[in-house]
UniProtKB/TrEMBL annotation:
Matching PANTHER family: TRNA (GUANINE(37)-N1)-METHYLTRANSFERASE, TRNA METHYLTRANSFERASE
SUPFAM superfamilies: S-adenosyl-L-methionine-dependent methyltransferases
Lineage: Eukaryota, Fungi, Dikarya, Basidiomycota, Agaricomycotina
Protein name in the entry: tRNA (guanine(37)-N1)-methyltransferase
UniProt-listed Enzyme Commission number(s): 2.1.1.228
Entry function: Specifically methylates the N1 position of guanosine-37 in various cytoplasmic and mitochondrial tRNAs. Methylation is not dependent on the nature of the nucleoside 5' of the target nucleoside. This is the first step in the biosynthesis of wybutosine (yW), a modified base adjacent to the anticodon of tRNAs and required for accurate decoding.
Length: 437
């Protein structure tokens, strides 16, 4: 139930660029209380007559001990003055011989929410569309501030930092997305200028420089979904691997992974993350264009397969092995054919499908694919068709055009809406065997 006493921080509108003065947000709020015998506090505060009359301001104690007085307590009521109290409450207090006392609650900067502080600090004409949404990646929050809020960026950053104790850095995106490497240019607006973050996803730990590589925490479910389709021992080729959110969890479930990205910062962190997650022997990292990588991966698997890779064991499996003096597990079977290609570059990945025909045609030992089966391609893409049926037609048409052949039994997974008129999907299909002809 809302309090009868409505409080908001003092209005202290800042000029552009002016520093936040936290002391300007102190407020003394008048409240009435009842002086009651200390021994009866619990009975009174729980009684039906008084319970619903207690002060309902969030985060404010309703029972006070004043001046070290052991004998009495003051319980705060949900009224500013005695005049505001209902007459029957005044009479109830008098009948019980409880003194009605006037009290003042001191609310400071820390009491108010970020929204309340910004509402009191920003110019009135900017209050309607006040920025409230930011995304958190590790210790860093990032905003995409509209131009009119830029003169107040440090205020917005500082309040965000103050009110979210796990944050150390607040940045604002200064430009559109980098067209090739898909990361954002950003400027620190509060806190440390440290854009190297650490996040947990799919049970793995990822470290990367958010100012230099692509990362999107909203893709966590999609990363987990695809990895759940892989089986232990599968050979995976991740064409646009970023810092490893598909590659590393796949390797942790005993897949063997060829992981590639054109951005050298991405592959630097991808290699580091492989080490940190103890899968460096089963993740092979390259830094090349996606088309070249598709060709490289097909031949690399044939010429230089992963060999003598032991399956990762849980700590209980290792303990059991040591206890029973069991021999180490057999190495994972050698795989010379790729089971899954992952292609998460939704803006253009469909166009890269043209690389499969030359890659498979020029591969030596193609017959391995006749024996082991053709790989499944998982290709992420955007579409402006917002009806699922139309989206599927649009995606399939573009995929078949690029691949240069028709696709049998495609499956379409809706990932998320990325803009009001743009959806992200993942198209999955088994590469037609005729691609090798
Ligand atoms: C949308 S991100 C996906 C990264 C990662 N797979 C994930 O899910 O977070 C696309 C990645 O493709 C990389 N990239 C862009 N163009 C590329 C190209 N021509 N060849 C290889 N990688 C490319 C970018 O650097 C970026 O890391």
């Amino acid at each position: 139930m809302a309090s009868n006493i409505s409080v908001s921080p003092p209005v202290h509108r800042l000029q552009p660029g002016e520093q936040l003065d936290r002391s300007a947000f102190s407020l003394k709020v008048p409240v009435v209380g009842l002086r009651i015998p200390a021994a009866r506090t619990t009975d009174i505060t729980r009684s039906s007559e008084f319970k619903r009359q207690l002060l309902k301001l969030p985060k404010v104690k309703t029972v006070l001990q004043e001046n070290g007085d052991e004998e009495f307590r003051v319980i705060l009521l949900d009224y500013s003055t005695q005049d505001a109290m209902p007459q029957d409450l005044v009479e109830l207090a008098q009948t019980n011989n409880y003194d009605i006392v006037q009290h003042g609650i001191d609310l400071e900067y820390d009491y108010w929410t970020a929204n309340e502080i910004l509402r009191s600090s920003l110019p009135e004409d900017l209050l309607e569309d006040m920025p409230t949404a930011f995304t958190i990646t590790g210790h860093l929050a990032h905003y995409n501030l509209r131009d009119e809020y830029l003169p107040y960026k440090h205020l917005i950053g500082q309040v965000t930092l103050d009110k979210n104790k796990a944050l150390r850095t607040v940045v604002n995106k200064t430009d559109n997305i980098d067209t090739t490497f898909r990361f954002f240019k950003m400027e620190t607006i509060a806190g440390e200028s440290d854009t190297v973050v650490e996040v947990n996803e799919s049970g793995c730990r990822f470290k990367f420089d958010f100012a230099k590589v692509y990362w999107n925490s909203r893709l966590g479910t999609e990363h987990e979904r695809l990895v759940s389709l892989f089986s232990s021992g599968d050979l995976i080729a991740d064409v646009f691997a970023g810092v490893g959110p598909f590659a590393i969890p796949a390797a942790r479930k005993n897949c063997l992974v060829l992981a590639n990205d054109l951005n050298p910062s991405s592959t630097e962190y991808l290699s580091r993350n492989s080490i940190d997650n103890k899968v460096e022997d089963r993740v092979r990292v390259t830094t090349m264009d996606g088309r070249a990588f598709i060709k490289h991966a097909v031949q690399e698997a044939i010429d230089h397969p992963f060999e003598n890779i032991l399956p990762l064991q849980s700590s209980s499996q290792r303990a059991k092995q040591a206890r029973l003096k069991l021999p180490p597990p057999d190495p994972l079977p050698v795989q010379r054919t790729i089971k899954h290609f992952v292609m998460n570059l939704p803006a253009t990945a469909l166009e890269f499908l043209d690389a499969f025909r030359p890659a498979f045609r020029s591969a030596t030992n193609q017959e391995l694919y006749n024996t082991n089966g053709m790989p499944t391609i998982h290709c992420h893409c955007f579409t402006r068709e917002l009806e699922k049926e139309n989206a599927e037609v649009d995606i399939l048409k573009r995929a078949e055009e690029a691949l240069g052949m028709s696709i049998a039994n495609p499956s379409f997974h809706y990932v998320r809406r990325v803009a009001p008129n743009k959806d992200m999907y993942c198209l999955s299909f088994v590469l037609p065997r005729t691609i090798m002809q």
